[in-house]
Amino acid sequence: MNQKIKIEEIVSELTFELINTLKTKSLKKWTQPWLKNGFHTNVKTKNKYNFWNSKILNKALEKNNYKYPIWGSIKQWNLLGHSIKKGEKSNAKIIVPISEKLGRENGTPNSENNKSEKEEQANDEIKYKFRTSPLFNIEQTNADLNLFTNLIGPIPLNQSNKIIKFIKSIKHNSIISHAIENPIYSIALDQIQLPSQSFFKTEEDFYITYLHELGHWTNHFTRLNRKPNIKVKEFEAKLAFEEITAEICSALLGTAFGFERDLQHPEYILDWINKLEKYPFAIYQAGSCAQSAAQYLCIQAGEHAPTSWPIRSNSDDW
């Protein structure tokens, strides 16, 4: 029943929407559904779905006028003692990647067309296929919503005190000073450098920028040390990948603390988007890496991680 579908059918649609959203200079299209309803949640595992599947489920929620972001497979609903209403069909299919390395098999160069190993290494690229997993919304079942109210939003807005505790609970090196003009993470010093809060228009701008730099901080070689499976040669494109990763990480965490989002530095981010637009798979990978970065920061924050987005358990509900 799990159908394999090609990467092009997934990436082209999702990345096109992501690019267009970033070009509006606002992230409220992402954040509003989450703030209103909470993050999309699996009914059995209580896990929050990942960035890309959350976007797929947002579409299904809006298209079918569902109110509650609670989902599960037929098997999961049945295991909980509930059933799908007669005549209901799945209106949402999340995606679970199955990696397939083209040009190589188990690290051995493919000799097709008599290509040399050096040529194969130059052209080597990870591509993905996906299996789909059909889901049913709680409104398509006979489940009593009152049993699952703890999985429903809205997310309390502007949780400044909680975001301060979150940032302070992550052991990292930072300098905040009037002498600093631009926020930056120095990977050489492993240090976040930020202008004083008075330099920012709002308290929100300061904290969202801090989250962006913490997103970069996760990329240190002693932490996540991101090495995405993408074929991007241009130096600027690789920088763009990292900037978009940090921005999406910031958007996820900012929303979890109830902050509505516009791009903090729209011209800067849009410049990176333009450099990466011809690499749709790189943008897909950036979204996945952003999810991992946000997850890593939540683990480091421990009890001060946002309660609206608890740490995922080991499962494949994606």
Write out key terms for the chains shown.
alpha+beta, single-stranded DNA binding, MPTase-PolyVal, 42% helix, 318 residues, 15% strand, 2 domains, 10 helices, ArdC_N, 10 strands, three-stranded mixed sheet, five-stranded mixed sheet
Structural features, described:
With 318 residues, the protein is of the alpha+beta class. The protein folds into 2 domains: 4-151, no CATH class; 160-304, no CATH class. Helix content is 42%, strand content 15%. It is built from 10 helices and 10 strands. It has helices at residues 7-23, 28-37, 51-63, 74-79, 117-123, 160-169, 203-217, 235-256, 266-276, 280-301; strands at 4-6, 41-42, 70-72, 92-102, 104-105, 108-109, 125-137, 174-177, 184-186, 191-195. Strands 1, 2, 3, 4 and 7 form a 5-stranded mixed β-sheet that branches. A 3-stranded mixed β-sheet has the order 8-10-9, covered by helices on one side. A hairpin with a 4-residue loop joins β9 and β10 (191-195). α7 crosses α8 (235-256) and α8 (235-256) packs across α9. The longest helix has 22 residues, at 235-256. It is globular and about 65 Å long. The relative contact order is 0.17.
Uncertain stretches of 5 or more adjacent residues: 100-126
The helix/strand order is EHHEHEHEEEHEHEEEHHHH
Largest sheet: 5 strands, mixed
Structural classification: alpha+beta
Average pLDDT, rounded to a whole number, is 83
Number of E-type strands? 10
